[in-house]
Amino acid sequence: MAPRSYWKGYLKLSLVTCPVTLMPATSEAERVRFRTLNGKTGHPVVSRYLDAETGDVVDDEDQVKGYPRSETEHVILEEEELDAVALESARTIDIDCFVPSDEIAWIWYDRPHYLMPADPIGEEAFAVIREAMRATDRSGVARLVLGGRERAVLLMPRGEGIILWTLRYGDEVRPEEAYFGDIAAGKPEAKALTLVKRLIEERTRTWEPGMVEDPVQENLLELVRSKKPKKRTRKGSAKAPKGGDNVVSIMDALRKSIEGKG
C-alpha cells in the first residue's frame, strides 16, 4: 500500500495544467531508532523548551518565530505574516525552462520525490508533459515550496511517473577548485593504468540495491533481540492490606482453599 502523499497541487507548463500529488521516494522508517529513558525508572524522557534566561518551561501557545538581528534582539514574526508572503510555488509546480538531462551534475541533487497524477482526469496532461521530456531527453526546472522554503526542483521522466529532485541552493555547493586545485596534474604511468583498468573490469557487477545495505542496522536489531526489556517501575507500590479489610489476595484465597481441602 502506497504511503499517503504529503503535498498536493498542480503541475503547470504554459497553459497545460494537471493536479498532481508528491511523496518522498526514500524512507527512513526502517532505520533503528532509540528512545531516551530514565535509567533508574525505565520511563521515557521528554524534551521541553525552556526560557534561556529564566529557565521556565515555555508552553506551545507561547512559542513564536523570531529572526535574530543581534545576540539580544530578535524580530518576531506571526504565523499570519508568514502565510501572507507565501509564494505561488506553494501550490503550483510551474516549469520555467528545460535543460539537457545530463547537464546538471549529481552534486546539485538533494532529495528525490515521486510525482504522479492526483486523479484520472489529469493523467492525459501529465502523460503529455512526461513523454515530451522523454522524447527530447530534457528535464524540467521549476520551483516549489517545501518545508517553508522555496526550492529549485528538477523534473525527470521515469517509468509512468516523474522523479522530482529538490536541488541544493547555490551557496550549499562548495566550489571544487578550492579542494582539487592543489592536486598535481599529470598522466599516470601507462602500465599502472592498464592494470587498474583490468581490475575495474574484473570487479564490475550489475547494480543491485543489496550493494548499499547497512549491516549495522541488522547488528543493532540482533542486539535488541538478545536483550531482555526493562520493565517500568510503578510510581507507587500498593500497600499490603491491613487486617480486617475485605480485600483478599487471590493467591491467599487459593492457598487457604488448598489447605482447607488438605
TrEMBL record:
The keyword DNA damage applies. Residues 226-246 are annotated as: Disordered. Keywords: DNA damage, DNA recombination, DNA repair, DNA-binding. Pfam families: Ku (PF02735). The keyword DNA damage applies. CDD domains: KU_like. It comes from the Bacteria. Residues 55-184 form the Ku domain. SUPFAM superfamilies: SPOC domain-like (SSF100939). Homodimer. Interacts with LigD. HAMAP family: Prokaryotic_Ku. With LigD forms a non-homologous end joining (NHEJ) DNA repair enzyme, which repairs dsDNA breaks with reduced fidelity. Binds linear dsDNA with 5'- and 3'- overhangs but not closed circular dsDNA nor ssDNA. Recruits and stimulates the ligase activity of LigD. Belongs to the prokaryotic Ku family. This is Non-homologous end joining protein Ku. It comes from Cereibacter johrii. The lineage of its organism: Bacteria, Pseudomonadati, Pseudomonadota, Alphaproteobacteria, Rhodobacterales.
